[in-house]
Amino acid sequence: MAVPKKRTSKSRKRKRKTVWAAKAQKIARKAFSQARSVLTGRSNSFYYTTNDDISK
């Protein structure tokens, strides 16, 4: 099994954690923006079904 040779410094650990959190933040922001555009009816980048289409 792989074992680290030396201890990881605090700053390196914090940098990695920040990058990881920033990726998640970017994805969350994108999803929120997309949801907002769907709710306002201004979305034209993708197709989706509405409840009216399903009931017909």
- Summing up helix and strand content along with how strands pair, one would put the structural category as mainly alpha
Instruction: Report the sheet with the most strands, covering strand number, pairing sense and barrel closure.
Output: none
CA-based gyration radius = 21 Å
Q: Cα distance, first to last residue? A: 58 Å
The average pLDDT is: 85
In percent, how much strand structure appears in the residues?
under 5%
Helix-strand topology string: HH
* Tally of individual helices: 2
Helix % is 55-70%
| Shape annotation | elongated
Number of strands: 0
As for the number of domains, it is 1
Residue ranges: pLDDT <50 for 5 or more in a row?
A: none
Keywords: Plastid, Ribonucleoprotein, Ribosomal protein
Family: Belongs to the bacterial ribosomal protein bL32 family.
InterPro entries: Ribosomal_bL32, Ribosomal_bL32_plant/cyanobact, Ribosomal_zn-bd
Biased composition (Basic residues): 1-18
Give a quick rundown of the structure:
With 56 residues, the chain is an all-alpha fold.
Task: Characterise this structure.
Helix content is 64%, strand content 0%. It is mainly alpha-helical. It has one domain. One of its GO terms (molecular function) is structural constituent of ribosome. Its main location: plastid. This is Large ribosomal subunit protein bL32c. Belongs to the bacterial ribosomal protein bL32 family.
